[in-house]
Amino acid sequence: MDLLIGDALMRWDIIKQQELDAALSLSTETALPLGKSLIALNMISATDLRISVQLQSMLRDEILSSGEAERIMHLCRVKKISLSQALIKTGLISVSGQRSRLGQLLVDFECLEERDLPRLLQITQTTGLPLGMVLVNCRAVNQTVLDTVIRIQKLRRSPSSAEEHKALKGEIDKVRGNCKSSTVIDTRLGSLLLNGEVISKAELRTALDISLVNQSFIGQLLVEFSWITAKTLEAALELQQALRQGLMDIESAAQILRSVHITQNNMQGVMKKRTPVYIRKMLFGKFLIISGFIDQHELETASHDFVTATVTFDAERAALIEKIKCEDPYVVKDLVCKAGLASPRTIDVGLKYWQLARDGFLPLVKAMVLFADHVLEGEELLRSQFVSAAPS
Fold it and tell me: Among 50, 83, 99, 298, which residue's CB has the most CB atoms within a 10 Å radius?
């Protein structure tokens, strides 16, 4: 049974049609998955979404019937217990120790290193984003490989005929061929200018030939020949740096560069126009919530406790409450850290990726994935340093 997450949440009486419509609209605007859009609009909790996605997968694999899934979801919400506890309580199944089938398929096809899978699964667990979305945004696999493996999953789930077996073999051969293609982005300045359709191949070849003779920089030569402007070159160099740091994909960088070249507006202005209004106005606390590091109830409780403990006079309390409502990011950092919801380092990393998303350097989903990856990488480094420093 292939039940869409929005339909499942409505069937289980967690959301109404008008809430689903609002979330679909936000999802279209921001490219957030529907579940994350519902969290952003305070319509469901992260726990509701996590359990719903797991039940959706079990329905698809025919592990549970529709009625059983509905009963388990109701039990989880009313009793405030985990999915595993609900499954054991009802005597249906124990799901402890399940592995990601998509991730394991990619490992089997040698598209993904076995040692990388736990980290990617941890990012999925933290952010609540689908594994496929995490894989692509971390550049673990490219979109073509992912799409092919998902098709293989669907073929394996359906009843097999001789023709379907043949189709499955063809898909497997195809994905193994695609896995050999590199996920590394070409960050050379000339390639970026070509992708943005700013210069022609002939102009690039001419500049390259001359640069070899007189040891000049290609960008400077292109400006001297009036093939690009200084503003276009400045934008191209900044975008090149963002590409090298993994903060942008080549398609977005090329589109931004082309817009700068045509309009001769500054790059920040071009990027701002490309960024959805919701993301430009997104508050830091909301970014932490949809990234999976805190939930709405925790933030509200922490805010109340912080105000109560910090000030006593009504006028000062009102001013602090207003600051929190407007979400001064540094006030949010203070209250979140004091409540023990996240470490100062986690909040500092979050501030960086929140700003990159608001400024249009990163799509919101990519900012969420890189935020989680950065935090997890830091925790792994700290653990390794602690182990190496421990007495033998």
Answer: 83
Residue 160 DSSP class: P
d(CA 271, CA 277): 12
pLDDT attached to residue 389: 45
Q: What is the DSSP letter of 247?
A: S
Residue 311 DSSP symbol: -
pLDDT along the chain (392 residues), means of 10: 81 93 94 92 90 85 84 91 86 53 84 89 90 89 84 69 66 65 70 92 90 86 92 93 81 90 89 89 92 88 78 64 68 86 92 91 91 83 46 46
Phi/psi at 14 (nearest 5 deg)?
-95, -35
Distance (Å, rounded) from C-alpha 146 to C-alpha 152?
10
d(CA 38, CA 6): 9
For residue 369, the tally of other CB atoms under 10 A from its CB is 26
Which pLDDT score is estimated for 308?
74
**pTM of the predicted structure, to 2 decimals:** 0.78
CA dist., res. 127 & res. 144, Å (int): 23
Tell me which residue of 245, 243, 205 sits closest to 227, measured CA to CA: 205
Q: Could you give the residue ranges of the DSSP H alpha helices within 215-283?
A: 218-224, 230-244, 250-263, 267-274, 277-280
CA distances from 73 to 11, 18, 251, 283 (A): 11, 21, 41, 31
Distance between CA atoms of residues 138 and 265, nearest Å: 31
DSSP single-letter state for residue 141: S
Distances (CA, A) of 314 to 258, 308, 323, 338, 392: 53, 10, 14, 22, 56
**Can you tell me the distance from the alpha carbon of 54 to that of 69, in angstroms, rounded to the nearest whole number?**
10
- Predicted pLDDT at 103: 87
CA nearest neighbour of 237 among 186, 200, 189, 184: 189
- Cα(312)–Cα(91) distance, rounded to whole angstroms? 53
Q: How far is CA 67 from CA 4, 157, 204, in A?
A: 16, 21, 64
Helices 250-263, 230-244: inter-axial angle, 10-degree rounding: 170
Helix intervals (H) in 245-343: 250-263, 267-274, 277-280, 284-290, 296-310, 314-326, 329-338
Residue with tokens 């990388």, as numbered in its chain: 116
